[in-house]
Amino acid sequence: MTINWLEFTPQSALAGGALIGIAAAILALFNGRIMGVSGIVSQLFTGGTPPKEHYRWRLLFIFGMLLSPMFYRAIAYIPKVEDHASITQLMIAGLLVGVGTRLGSGCTSGHGVCGLGRLSLRSLIATLCFMAAGFLACYYFLHGVKA
User: Fold this and answer.
1) Which one in 18, 22, 78, 114 has a CA-CA gap of 20 to 30 Å to 11?
2) Quick one: DSSP state of residue 35?
3) How far is Cα 73 from Cα 122, in angstroms, rounded to an integer?
4) Confidence of residue 128 (pLDDT cuts 50, 70, 90)
5) How many CB atoms are closer than 10 A to CB 112?
């Protein structure tokens, strides 16, 4: 596997990472919440009758996450991505990610961004585990599977 240097854009990756960090800091400072996306989404489906504010900021956060790529695409070039996975494979992958975030008590944004920023040992271990699993899966599917 090689890097396509014509489409390698470290500036946009750095800017995106900085924006994620700023968003996490703003949410923590002004709302007292951790920016863990799996937790934000799962709390939308809690039982009982929580106050309207419980849903409002979560829905706005998710809306912003869904809207931001469309905004970025309007102002910048996004390289074409070739996806060779079937709908079934994508659904299974999404299910596994959801199960993994529940088992790990959080996701990459919660552990990798917010937890590491707070020097949490639990988040360090979780981040090392999901990064290792990602590396192994990529290696296996790029080099181990022969079609």
Assistant:
1) 114
2) -
3) 36
4) very high
5) 19
Which tokens is 68 given?
């931001």
Query: What's the CA gap between 100 and 117, in Å, rounded?
Result: 21
How many C-beta atoms surround the C-beta of residue 136 within 10 A? 11
Residue ranges of the domains in the chain? 10-144
Confidence check: pLDDT of 62 > 70: yes
- Identity of the amino acid at 14: L
**Segment 22-33 mean pLDDT:** 89
Interior CA angle at 140 toward 130 and 103, to 5°? 25
**d(Cα 108, Cα 67) in Å, to the nearest integer?**
20
Q: How far apart are CA 100 and CA 87, in angstroms?
A: 20
Confidence at residue 146, expressed as pLDDT on a 0 to 100 scale? 62
pLDDT (average), residues 125-133? 89
Q: Which pLDDT value is given to residue 147?
A: 52
**127 contacts 111 by C-beta, under 8 angstroms:** yes
**How many whole angstroms separate alpha carbon 111 and alpha carbon 113?**
6
The Cα–Cα gap between 46 and 116 comes to 27
Tokens of 130: 């999901």
Q: What is the pLDDT of residue 35?
A: 87
